[in-house]
């Protein structure tokens, strides 16, 4: 099951999670997310806790203040850096790109995407939320709710 299915969030949060640039780094308890879209990214760095592949909490003010998941949790779910990197960062061969693009395999340098030919068959896309690569390539857009 895709981790986005377990989260509740607005269309606005989903769009921001897609287009803002995030640097995502595995840490022991989950992931450190820095928003590179801000003028001072160091002031916009938060920790996202995980329960398996699902981002469950974030240290950002929005996650506590508003109902639903914040853009940092949604960004983690969209990019799916759950390939064991939080549990064993030293063995991870997946690097999350800060520009929001597809993940890159460190060994091969190739992008990781389930199917670049047809977004209808893409395993990363959800009915209302496309994966980043399909959105970036304009194969799919958001469905307004």
From TrEMBL:
<feature type="compositionally biased region" description="Basic and acidic residues">
    <location>
        <begin position="110"/>
        <end position="122"/>
    </location>
</feature>
<feature type="region of interest" description="Disordered">
    <location>
        <begin position="79"/>
        <end position="122"/>
    </location>
</feature>
<dbReference type="Pfam" id="PF04434">
    <property type="entry name" value="SWIM"/>
</dbReference>
<keyword id="KW-0479">Metal-binding</keyword>
<dbReference type="InterPro" id="IPR007527">
    <property type="entry name" value="Znf_SWIM"/>
</dbReference>
<feature type="domain" description="SWIM-type">
    <location>
        <begin position="46"/>
        <end position="81"/>
    </location>
</feature>
<keyword id="KW-0863">Zinc-finger</keyword>
<keyword id="KW-0862">Zinc</keyword>
<dbReference type="GO" id="GO:0008270">
    <property type="term" value="F:zinc ion binding"/>
</dbReference>
<protein>
    <submittedName>
        <fullName>SWIM zinc finger domain-containing protein</fullName>
    </submittedName>
</protein>
């Amino acid at each position: 099951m895709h981790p986005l299915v377990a989260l509740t969030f607005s269309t606005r949060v989903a769009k921001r999670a897609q287009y803002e640039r995030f640097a995502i780094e595995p840490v022991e308890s989950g992931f450190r997310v820095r928003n590179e879209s801000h003028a001072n990214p160091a002031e916009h760095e938060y920790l996202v806790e995980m329960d398996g592949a699902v981002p469950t909490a974030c240290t950002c003010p929005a996650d506590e203040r508003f109902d639903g998941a914040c853009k940092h949790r949604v960004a983690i779910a969209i990019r799916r850096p759950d390939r064991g990197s939080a549990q064993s960062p030293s063995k991870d061969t997946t690097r999350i790109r800060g520009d929001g693009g597809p993940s890159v395999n460190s060994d091969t340098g190739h992008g990781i995407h389930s199917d670049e030919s047809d977004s209808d068959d893409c395993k990363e896309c959800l009915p209302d939320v496309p994966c980043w690569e399909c959105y970036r390539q304009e194969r799919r857009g958001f469905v307004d709710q």
